[in-house]
Amino acid sequence: MFLCLMIILFNLKAFGSDLDYQKNYCVGYFEELYWSLDPIEEEKRRDLIIDFFNKNLPGSSQLDFDLFYDSKKKQFITDIENNDVSKYAKVNYPNFEVIILDAYINLFKQGKNYCPAFWDNCEEESIKAFFDAARDYSNIWKGEENVISFLDKNFINHQCSTFMRTSINQKEFIFDLNILIEQLTK
Fold first, then answer.
1. How far apart are CA 110 and CA 186, in angstroms?
2. Which range marks the domain in which residue 37 is found?
3. Which of 14, 17, 37, 79 is deepest in the core (most CB within 10 A)?
4. Which residue in 177, 184, 168 sits closest to 53, CA to CA?
5. For 16-30, 109-123, 141-155, which range has the lowest pLDDT when averaged over its residues?
6. How far apart are CA 63 and CA 98, in angstroms?
7. 1 within domain boundaries
8. Cβ neighbours, 10 Å, residue 103
9. Are 139 and 132 spatial neighbours (Cβ–Cβ below 8 Å)?
10. Is 8 inside any structural domain?
């Protein structure tokens, strides 16, 4: 009986460790993915990315958010209905940016801290997983001119895609995005 209990506890710990590794890995993956797609400025290419997400992730078409940024507070406005938004910078987040940032933020919020996204009291395994993802990503990313091929072959069925969702509430997204900004501007 004692041996069975020890085996169960060992397996639970190992499973938890694998899940922690995968989450830390995916934080690194989504960070790399976001910083590869966000700087793409060519409208035609950005439209192709938006269309790719619309076709492959049901509900993506609802995720085109116009947000308003208060540069004095370094935060997005959460109460758009009761504010004169003309005083703020309008920033558009298309579906792919919303989905990727949502997955990224939700993964690092699940931990005890913001590790490894902001190096906040990281354990060596967290950092290793993060950099494993960065290395793996750099081995498959072939530049923005090949973005649709990358998305089709290397993204849609990637192990981290299980953390993506399309049922994203805009106000919750703004709240989470403000956490990200707060961490980045510390």
1. 20
2. 22-184
3. 37
4. 168
5. 109-123
6. 7
7. no
8. 22
9. no
10. no
Domain count, the chain: 1
Report the distance separating Cα 133 and Cα 29, nearest Å. 5
Neighbour-count burial for 72-102, b at 16+ CB within 10 Å, e otherwise: eeebbbeeeeeeeeeebeeeebbbbbbbbbb
Phi and psi for 66 in degrees, rounded to 5? -95, 115
Q: What is the pLDDT of residues 64-105, one digit of tens each?
A: 999 999 999 999 999 888 888 889 999 999 999 999 999 999
Strands 75-76 and 65-70: antiparallel
Q: What ranges in the chain are assigned the alpha helix state H?
A: 2-37, 43-56, 95-109, 124-140, 147-150, 170-184
pLDDT at 109: 78
Measured in residues, the chain has a length of: 186
Does a structural domain hold residue 2?
no
Q: Can you read off the two tokens belonging to residue 119? A: 């190096």
- Give CA–CA dist 147/125, Å, rounded: 30
Q: How far, CA to CA in Å, does 119 sit from each of 21, 28, 96, 185?
A: 15, 12, 25, 14
Rounded to a whole number of angstroms, the distance between the first and last alpha carbons of the chain is 51
